[in-house]
Amino acid sequence: MVLYKRKPVQLVPVPDDIGPDDEVWTIKETGEVFKTYEEYLVRQEFYKQKKFICVITGHSALNFFDALRSEQANAEEIEQAFPEALKGPVLRKVQFKTTSRIDTLVDQVYDDFKTDYYPHEAVIVNMMTGDRLHGVIRDKAIFSGKTLPDGTAAPPRARYFVSLDERPGEEAVCDETQISRDRKVFTKSVIRSFLKGTTSREAWTGAPWIVKPDVARRYNISTTVPEALRHETKLAERKKLALQKRQSMGEQVSPHPTPDSMSPTGPVRLPDLKPAPKSHKSKAQQAQQAHNQANGTKHKSPNGFPGIEPGGFVHMPLPGSQMHMALSLRTNQEMHHIYTQQPQIQAPPPPPPPPKGPIDDLQLQPQGRVRPKLKYFCNDPPVDVEPDLKHPFGAKILMKSVGPLLETWDTLNVYVEVLQLDSFTFDDFVEALHIASEELPVELFTEVHCAVLKILVSAEDQGGKPQIELPELEVEDDEDEEEEESAEPTPEPEPKPAGRATRRSLAKAEAEKLAAAQAEAERKALEAENAPKHRAEELLSDYNWIEQLAKRQLQDGGWQMIMVGLLHQLSKKERRREKCEELLQQLVPTEIEQPTQETVRERYSSLDVNYRIQALQIICQLCSETKAFREYMETCSTAMTDYRKQKIELQRNRKQAIEELKALNEERKILLPDNLPPSPPLESAKTNGDVSMTDLEDVTPMPEEVPDSGDESVIGGRALRKGKLRAAERKRKAELEQERKEKAEAAAKVPKQSKQFLKLLKDIEAKEKVISDYEKQIGVIDDDLRENDCNRTRVLGKDRFFNRYYWFERNGMPFAGLPESSTAHAKYANGCIWVQGPDELEREGYIDMPPEWQDEYKAKFDMTVPERKKLEEGPTSVFNAYQWGFYSEPEEIDALLGWLNDKGLKEGKLRKELIANRENIAKHMEARKAYIGPVGGSNTKGATKEDDDKSQKEGTPAPAPVEKPNKRMSTRGRTTAAPTPEVSAPKYRCLSWHNTDAMDQLGHLHSEQPAPVRARKPTKRKSESAAIVAEAAESTGSRKKKARHSRG
C-alpha cells in the first residue's frame, strides 16, 4: 500500500469496453490497463514522481516503483521476524482501535503483550538454579482474579507449560515473571513495522484501524466495522450535535409577548432580531443620531412619522386584521420612497487586513539590520575577510573538510559509551589532528582510530567477523593466466605482393595508417587510465586485514595497515571509490617501490590534516551500520519512551499540586486579616531627625580649627573634650537600651497567630517544596531525554536565507562532556554555534530564483533576494551546504537574537530555541575562552607578544613567554643552589587527554594488547574500581546520568 500525500494510491480500474482484438498498454507492477498510449504515459509520469512513501519503512521522496519494491522486501522481512504466535492476538487487539497516532498504538500493544505469552511461542525460561533455557510454550492456563478477605482484588494470573529444547521430554510450569522473549524479537520498531504492513486507517478524525482483508482471513478476524465506528454514523452524530447547539443558542424566550403569540392561528416563530453593533453604522448615521438626541427629537422615518428607535420594541397589529394589511401597504410604499429618493452609495472596499501570525520570512519588510560577522575555520573562506575572523588552526583546513570534521567529532562524542572513549573537546580534537606525527605521538589521535576500527570487526574470541557489509574483492584465477600464457601466438599475415600504386590505393593506405595511429593512441590512453595509481594490491597480497583486526594487532603500524586494507576493499564500491582511491594514493603511492607496514606508518604520520579528516569520516560513517550502534540506538529509544511516560506522570502530579496550592492560598487570604500584626508605632522625635546640643558638641573640629601645638592650654582643652565624649557615649548607650525595651514591649503586645493559620502556612510551604521537587525531577528527565536523543543531530533552526544553525551539545551528549573524562576540567564540549549554508534545492528555489520571479520580488521590496542577502548578512556569508561559519562569543549570540525577526516562520522558531538555550550556550562559550586562553597554552620557545595576542583572538594555545635572565644581577657572596627540576606542562592541550574509560573497562588502551592475567589477590583499590565498572555496566547511559547528577 504505497502512499501519495499520506493517502493510499488508488489504482485505475480496468475499462469494461475492451475487445479481444483491441491494442492496450499495461503497467506490470500494478496490473493497470490503458486503451490509449497517452493515458499510459500520463500514468507512468505520475508514478515516476519522487513523491511516494513506503508505508512500512516511512521512507519518502521515492517514486512509486521504488516504494513498492521497498514495501515488498520489508514486508517479507517483517513477516519472518515477527513471532507467528503473536500475530493473531496482536491483530485482534488492534482491530477497530480508534487511537489516532501509531506511536501511541505501538506503546499500548507493547505494554499489553510485554508480559503476556501465547502457545507455540519461543521463550527463554529462567530456572530456579539460575540457568536460562530456551523452550516453546505448549499450553497456557488463565486463572481469574479474586477478592481477598481484606477487600483487595487480586489480578488474574496465568500459568505456562513450556517444553524445554535443551531437555527433551521435560516441561517447566512457570508464570510470567520466570519467562521472557528474545530482546530482538519483540521490540517497538518491529511492532510498528508489522502494524504498518498489516493494518490501515482512513484519513478522518476518529477512524478505526482495520486489518487488511487478506491478513484478516488468514487469522479469522472479522472485518465488519461496527455501526458506531463508521464514517456515516460519526458524521451524522456531529451534524446532530451541531444542530442541537444552534437550537439551544437560538431558542431564547422574550420577556414581552409578540404579536404572533397572540394570533388565533397559534404562535409563529420569527427570526431573532438583535440590535446592530455601533461599529456597523456609518459616521453620518452616528452623527445624525447624536444630533437628534441633543435636540430631544425622536428618530423619524423619511415620511415624517416617528420611526422605531434602535433596540426598541413596536406594537404590531394582529395578523389578518385590516390594520395589519394597511400597515403592510404603507410600509411597502415607504420603502419604495426610500429607495427612489435616496440612491445607495457604495463604500470603497476596506483595505486588506494585516497578516495574522508568522508568515514566510522573506515576505517581511527589510528592517535594515545586519547580521553579526561570521568566523571561518578554514583557509579558503567564501568571501575575503579580516585575519581575526579566521581560526588559527584553519590555516591548513579546507572549507570542504569543515563539515566532515564536525560530523566526525559529533559522532565520536555521542557514541563514546559504545566506543569506550573519554569525551574530548572539539579544539583538542582539531589540535590532535594537526600535531600527531612520528616524532610526537598523540594518544587521542591513535585511540580514536583504534576504537572505531575495533567496532567494525568483532574480536577473535567472538568470531572475528566483519560487522558491516563489505564489497567483494576481485580474485584473479591462476588457471586463466596459465591458459593465456600457454596460448599460441597469432601468426602474422603474409605480406601481399605489391601492386601498381594508384591514387585510390594510396589514399586508402593513408587512411588505414591514420586509423592505426588513432587506435594506438586510444590504447595507450586506456592503459594509462587503467594503470594502478597506488601499490595497495601489492602491499596487501599476503596480508588479511580482517584477521589482523580480529586479533587486535594494532601496534607498531598495525592500525595504519588495517586502514589501508579497509580503504582498498571499500574502493570496490562505486559510491566510495573516488575518496578511497585518493587516500590510497597518499598512503601507498607508486613512488614507493616496496611498500611495507613501516612505510605506511610513516606516510600516515605525515598525512595532511584534510586527508586525516576524510579517512576518519569514512570509518565513522561505517559505524552506523554495526550491530553495536543499532542496539545502542534502540536502547536509547526505549529509554526515551520510559522517560516520556515518567514526565507525563510528573506533570500530572505537579498540576494537581498546583491546584491544591491554589486552594491553600485562597484559604490563607481568608484567614489573613485576623492574623495580621498591628501597625508599627510612630517613631520618636529623635528618630525623625532632631539633634540634641550634645551631639553638636561631639563634632570633631575641622583641621583649620585645631589649635597650635605650641599653645600651653592645649592639654586642658583635650581633657575637657574627653570628658564630654564619655558623657555622650553613656547617653547614647542609654538611648539604645530604651529603644530595645520599647521594641520588646511592642512585640509582647502583638497577638499570637492562630494554630490553624500557622498550620496552613506550613502546609503551603510543604506544598511549594513538593512542586519544586516535581519541577526538578522534570528537569532531570528533560536532560535524560536530550542526552538519549542520539539518532540524529538536531538543528536549532533556519534563518530567512535558509542557513542552518547547529549547537552540537543540544542532543546526544552532556553539555560539558562526561564528568569523569580526563579533560572534564575544560567544562565544555564544542562551545560554538555553527552556521551551515542552504542546500542546493533551497538555494535554487528561494534565493537564486528565475529572473521573472526576481523581478516580481524586486517590484515588491525594491531589491532581489540575493541583493537582500548581501545587504542583511553583511560582509560574511555562506552560500551552500558545504560552507560553514561559526560564532564563539556570547555577545555575538545577543546580536544574532536582535537580527532575527520573530514574526517569520523560520526565524521565530530559531529565536525561540536560542532564547531557551542562551544561558547554557553563553556559559560554555565562556568556559571555552578560559580553556583555550594563554593559561595552559603551548610552551613553544621564542614566543613574542604578537604571537600571544594573535592566539588570544580565537583560541590557539599561546606559547608561554620565556623569561630572560637579568644580566646586571649581582651574585657576589651568594651560594648558587642547584636548579630544581620542574615538571614541565604539556606543550599542547590535547596531550593531557587520556582514555581512562578504556583503562577502567578493558584494563588497557585500544591500541595495546591486553596484559597477561596474573593470579593474585586484587587490592582493595582495584576491587572498588571493578565494582564501580560493574555497576556502570548494569544500565545503558549510566555515564550520562553521572553527568546529569554532577550538574545538579
TrEMBL record:
Disordered: region residues: 241-317, 340-364, 466-530, 672-718, 932-986, 1001-1048
| GO CC annotations, alphabetized | chromatin; chromosome, telomeric region; nucleus
Keyword Disulfide bond belongs to the record: no
- Where is this chain compositionally biased, Basic residues type? 1038-1048
Q: Indicate the segments forming the WAC domain, all copies.
A: 22-132
Task: List localization entries.
Answer: Nucleus
Q: Where is the composition biased (Low complexity)?
A: 284-295, 1025-1035
In this chain, composition skew of type Acidic residues spans 471-487
One biological process term from GO is: subtelomeric heterochromatin formation
Write down a Pfam family by its short name: WSD
In this entry, which stretches build a coiled coil? 640-667
The record's keywords, sorted A to Z, are: Coiled coil, Nucleus
- Name the predominant localization: nucleus
Where composition is biased (Basic and acidic residues), the residues are 520-530, 943-953
Q: Which residues form the DDT domain?
A: 399-462
Q: In what ranges is there compositional bias, type Pro residues?
A: 346-357
Q: Which InterPro entries match?
A: DDT_dom (IPR018501), WHIM1_dom (IPR028942), WHIM2_dom (IPR028941), WSTF_Acf1_Cbp146 (IPR013136)
Family matches, as PANTHER family: ISWI CHROMATIN-REMODELING COMPLEX SUBUNIT YPL216W-RELATED
- Protein name as annotated: Imitation switch two complex protein 1
